[in-house]
Structure formats: structure tokens, C-alpha cells
């Protein structure tokens, strides 16, 4: 894919070129996740695929069942 260029405004705003918005299905009001990976700024639309990838990523070391059973043992 060819590189496309944009400019940062004085308010810190960036315009995503129309070609990229269309390709990624980004419409007015689409929320965008922003993060740094190494020295790169990553912008990613929050869509079904993004949310599906998060599934299970916030899981703690114990399941809810294990945590509840541990609490019951401590109460005794």
C-alpha cells in the first residue's frame, strides 16, 4: 500500500485520509484506540474485531468460581 500523509493541527487533531477511512469502515463517531508500540503511534478503530480480541485478556489468575471458593474457605 502506498504511504499517505496528513498533518497534525494546532489542537493535536489528525485527519485520517478518506481512502483509509473507507477501507477500515471508519465513520463519523467511530471510537479510536490510541497506543504506542515501541516508537510507533498506533490508531485502531474500536469495532467488533477489536472487542473480540480483548475477550479474556482481562482475566485474572483465578476464575470467579475459584475466587469464591477461596473466600468461603477463608470465612470458616
Q: What is the helix tally?
A: 3
The largest sheet is:
2 strands, antiparallel
Shape, please? elongated
- Give the terminus-to-terminus CA distance: 63 Å
**How many domain regions?**
1
Question: If strands are numbered along the chain, what order do they take across the biggest sheet?
Answer: 1-2
Radius of gyration: 20 Å
- The percent range for helix content is 25-40%
Task: Give an account of the 3D structure.
The chain has 76 residues and is of the alpha+beta class. Helix content is 34%, strand content 16%. It contains 3 helices and 2 strands; from the N terminus they run αββαα. The chain has a two-stranded antiparallel ribbon with strand order 1-2. The relative contact order is 0.09.
State the gist of this model.
The chain has 3 helices and 2 strands; from the N terminus they run αββαα. The chain is of the alpha+beta class. The N and C termini lie far apart (63 Å).
Could you outline the blueprint of secondary structure elements for this entry?
Layout (H helix, E strand, L loop, with lengths): L17 H7 L7 E6 L2 E6 L2 H7 L9 H12 L1
Antiparallel strand pairs: 1-2
Keywords:
76 residues; alpha+beta; two-stranded antiparallel sheet; 3 helices; 16% strand
Amino acid at each position: 500500500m502506498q504511504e499517505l500523509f496528513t498533518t497534525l493541527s494546532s489542537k493535536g487533531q489528525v485527519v485520517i485520509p478518506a481512502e483509509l477511512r473507507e477501507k477500515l469502515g471508519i465513520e463519523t463517531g467511530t471510537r479510536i484506540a490510541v497506543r504506542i508500540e515501541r516508537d510507533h503511534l498506533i490508531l485502531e478503530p474500536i469495532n467488533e474485531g477489536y472487542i473480540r480480541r480483548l475477550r479474556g485478556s482481562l482475566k485474572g489468575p483465578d476464575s470467579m468460581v475459584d475466587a469464591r471458593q477461596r473466600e468461603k474457605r477463608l470465612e470458616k
